[in-house]
User: Fold this.
Amino acid sequence: MTQRLGPDSVVAITVTRRRPELLKALLTTLGRQSRPVDLVIVVDNSPDRAVAELVAGYPGASLHIPSWHPLGSAGGFALGALTALARGAGWVWFFDDDARPATSDCLRELLACAAERGLAMVAPAVVNVDNPGELSFLMRRGLTWVRDPGVLREQKFLPGYASLFNGALFRADALDVVGVPDSRLFLRGEEVEIYRRAQRSGLPFGTCLTTAVLHPSGLGDFHSILGGRFYVPDPRSPSKRYYTFRNRGFLSTQPGRRFRWPLDCVVFSWYFLVVRRDLTGFREWLRLARMGRREQLLRDTEL
Assistant:
């Protein structure tokens, strides 16, 4: 019988697919945390012996979950989270496999921040692994977009904002309220859906700016228009583009996100038809967005 974890236990979860070198870097930093992680769960979307060996070699307790059916990041995080809850986890710590804590005190600081402020969910700052002086993802503060984490550091804490699945720490009972990711989204957008639910849940959460997670820059997938007032997601990868446009359409039908649809119609029309002069790209966006809005969350088997 599997031993039950304690109420203060922390389970780290990551989802991977054929990226053992990135996973190795993550597992190494998780294994060096000054507040030890009680269990590491790796959901493997393309079962690989190298990944299984890495997980088996982790210095602490670990669990490798191979999936012969592709779950994507959304399904993988859902499976990992439910497994952690079933084991009795007190806290669940989510990571993309290409992210890793910036310091050995990351977990300790997140737990201290959560205890001090009574948080149900807390996230670190997410900075560019190649340039830690830059955020990995654009952050909107009022009418301006922020890239430099130094602009925010004096605040130490941002209430009501979090970049999820890159070091976000959830209390187990917060997942009871917010739920696990929607596996239908597959990839690209599942973190937005969970963030939407967190905002509507009434649970206290935010970002602890005194600690950070390293992650490759995601700025290349976004393109500025109208003098930098808006940023449009248009990934270079066909698979990421498919799921980004489809899932964004789906999310625009959900409570708390419905105002996005008329705004997206203006922004994407301007981007494709005025900036890029790309009628084919516009038609592709519109087709995929409409699929999502109709809840036709089909997977693209050609990608």
Summary: The domain at 10-215 is CATH 3.90.550.10 (Spore Coat Polysaccharide Biosynthesis Protein SpsA; Chain A). Residues 168 and 214 are 13 Å apart (CA to CA). The radius of gyration is 19 Å.
